[in-house]
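pls ignore typos typing on phone
26V + seq
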Amino acid sequence: MKKQPSKSSKAAADVQETKAILNSMEAHLTYSISKYSALATTHDWYEIAARTARDRMAERWMETMQTYYRDDPKRVYYLSLEFLVGRTFSNAALNLELHGEFKQALHELGQNIEAVSEMEFDAGLGNGGLGRLAACFLDSMATLELPCYGYGIRYEYGMFHQKIEDGQQVEHPDNWLRYGNPWEFPRPEVLYPVKFHGRVVQFTSEDGTLRHHWVDTEEIMAMAYDTPVPGFGGKTVNNMRLWAAKSSRDFDLRYFNQGDYIQAVADKNASENLSKVLYPNDSTEMGKELRLKQQYFFVSASLQDILYRYKKHHATWDELPNKVAIQLNDTHPAISIAELMRLLVDIHGLGWDHAWNLTTRTFSYTNHTLMPEALETWKVSLFEAILPRHLEIIYAINFQFLRQVMHTFPGDNELLRRMSLIDENGDRRIRMAHLAIVGSHTVNGVAQLHTELMKSTIFSDFNRLWPGKILNMTNGITPRRWLNQANPALAELISANIGTGWIRNLDELQKLRALAKDAAFRKAFGAVKRANKERLAAMIEETLHIRVNPDSLFDIQIKRIHEYKRQLLNVLHVITLYNRIRQGTHPNTAPRTVIIGGKAAPGYVMAKRIIRLINNVAEIVNNDPLIGDRLKLLFIPNYNVSNAERIVPAADLSEQISTAGTEASGTGNMKLSLNGALTIGTLDGANIEIMEEVGEENFFLFGLTADEVARLRASGYNPWDYYHGNTELRQVLDMIASGYFSPDEPDRFQSIVDALLCHGDHYLLLADYASYVACQERVDALYCRPEEWLQKSILNVAGMGKFSSDRTIRQYAEQIWHVGPVPVC
Ligand code: 26V
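k done
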């Protein structure tokens, strides 16, 4: 094992820098907080440290913006309803390569950097994978020096705070701005009006063309809040611009002069509700008016801002696609396509065909799910009431599009019905995915399998019409947050052995392959994992008052709770182990700690029931004297980005067990493997590519393939066959149904068993059960051979180079956006 001093070595703080940081912090104590240090709370110290870090980004941020303004490169706008950023302080300090200095300066002030960092509220402005991906992308775009902007909504309340009461999820509001947010810069002067409702009047202009006016509208103002996004090394600092709704009443004195002052102020609050809360749903479309208004609100403000910036440099619109690339993060911002058409045609007077040409060369769209129930549609009637002009524009786009389909595939009315932007079955609905595809030049999936399935199933007609339009961009994660920040001890060990190049170029982790054979390295690697497990055990003891054994196998499933992700299959395995231990049929293998974390959408009854089942099973298992330390089951409440940073580094086993063909990519799978967990997984999403990279021998594969799933479903799947054919499975299901885990209410979980046995087991848990349990036996056996386990664990880390979001973003930049780095000088 080589030892080599590393630049990022957190121990070696630069004395000069430390002094400067110390001075800034003392100045902020006086001038920002105005307290004597004896009175300053830990939260005050956080505020002081954050402002000091922010000051260090400000100059580069301004220089970055100035460079973009001066050079006018093609810019990328990432439009997303969600940015799941988490905490910023440690990330900023690390990306500025000043973490050691902050730690030392805080130490000299009598503060501990970890305790100070913990004061920060997560910016939980997202549900799960899609929102976190957007945050990883911002980090990579800045690190790669790309001229990119994130646009979204500044929700006053982010993802709800999950508490577990009586085993059940209870949602509490996430008032994350309660103590202010030192990272954001309000821009009260960056303000755009956004219209809703009203009606459309047609008129003929002087040159004889038919024009449209959208009149009698209600207006809400969008105000910008900017947050700096530092790349690693801190040279480029990009901007994330989030919009907050402000009442237009504030800007229009007439309302206050008309007499009903109280009503005027009350109305003002109503319009400001628009950016109040994030919709905590990521599975089923709910078609709510407020959600549609949120989408249009942020789309309209963002497009006005983008066009304003374009206009500063250009007299005509012809260069728009050469200067502006807009990425639609799922269909949530897809109304952009109709809005850009409206702005170009109605406001700026371009002809329809010209505007359509510019629009379709500007947009590209990422799909994140194949689940039919998550594909967005809007009732035509609702849409018409809120955005009447956009509905007309969508009809016009559809008319032209269907004419093209008809021309290419004459006489196929069924095809027209399937491809139309309007679903005419039942209540008429607008298919936002179809609008996004038709209005974009490129569409992408987020993992190879997902992209292939998009092409062969949900979007097969579009793939036939426009072969080559659908590309794959396999997801990635930022190694800055998910290794350098979350797992400082492992980052340190890796840097000491292969240098720090991996932070920018994750492929360098390959160099660890040789070290997997090095006993001394393995020992050091094992010690890091062990320390991370102790840290997590301490957190668990503090929050759940349960003591777990850090020597046990930490078996971890952290993600949103959803039937397709099959947390229930995990529970079936836990109960199987429980029975085996009690019956004395479990070989005397490694003790296990099964940890599950995740939020259920508040209205998703089955997901909430599964959480309750996990907690009820945990109650029985954890308190059974026959089980002792051999098995523990824990549900970690309020899984979020900062909890993930604690949990991920401590994992031995990563559960990626979705029904093949359902998980578009997964990114938690990447985070866990990057931190040395071995994966037990199906051939689904990015698991397939992870297995290719780390080697089949270092991956626990089980279950049906996506093809087999499709065939089994088509041939008439009968869950009862598996129930009758497997004694252990039958015992497990009977226990759940009989109330073994809910003695106070024996039929509490009947509906869960019914979903499996009587309602078709849509996600084929029973079909995969035997294969899963057998695979878990292989996991157990390997865990009892620690040297081999460690070797495979190291090989997992070594194989993760591909899954850096830097690679993903480079592919988007080259193949979709056609932009290159713009170094800031
Ligand atoms: C859908 C909906 C539906 C209606 C209401 C609000 C709402 C909000 C978000 C979503 C998106 C669900 C799609 C999603 O999060 N997909 C995940 O994307 C990850 C990043 O590409 C990917 O790794 C996960 O596999 C995929 O489930």
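The longest strand covers residues 218-230. The pocket of 26V is lined by residues 127-130, 133, 279, 281-282, 285-286, 330, 368-369, 374, 446, 475, 663-667, 685 (CB under 6 Å). more later
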